[in-house]
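Input record (Table S2, row 198):
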Amino acid sequence: MVSIAKKVGSIYLETDANSLYCQEKSLCYSMSMSEIIYPFIPEGRTIEYVPENNIFMKKARDFAKTNSLDKTMPGAAVVVKDSNVIGIGANGSIFHETNECVRVARRSESGKDYELCEGCHPKNHSEFSAIADADAKGHSTEGADLYLWGHWWCCEPCWKSIIQAKIKRVFLMKGSEILFNQKNPNNIIGTQFANDRE
Ligand SMILES: [Zn+2]
Ligand SMILES: [Zn+2]
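Output record (zinc ion complex):
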């Protein structure tokens, strides 16, 4: 694994191909978003950020809470055009309830081998299912925006469907690279909805 130590202001960042660590969390959070190193991002594309109270981000979160079948990393995405939600989808599959995950058995790396497991297949990812929902409802996704809650990056097959759908901008929730990053010690994985009042 390639490890790079990089000085940003007064703090050092240690990065590898899959993660970004900060020695001091508070400083890390205030860093510019351009310092986030994603496991995958297509050439020429960027990810933008909105606060957690953004109406579309909230909608994605609510949808993940009630519809996601992924117990560890619940997620959902909404496709928005002219301020209207034209597609919505959550992640996960019932496959893992009765079958062993092929990727876990193979010890696949994060972001790899999705196609090899029926449960992990990209068709069960939030981005893909939100785009498919818009398609199924007869909406054109050209020029639309996508809001993703519950993950800190989009995998290669999902980016492929985002680009094919001619989606213009992709938004994540501010702080996703900490909150939803398995490699960040300050993540909230497993307690995503713990503070909700029922
Ligand atoms: Zn699987
Ligand atoms: Zn994906």
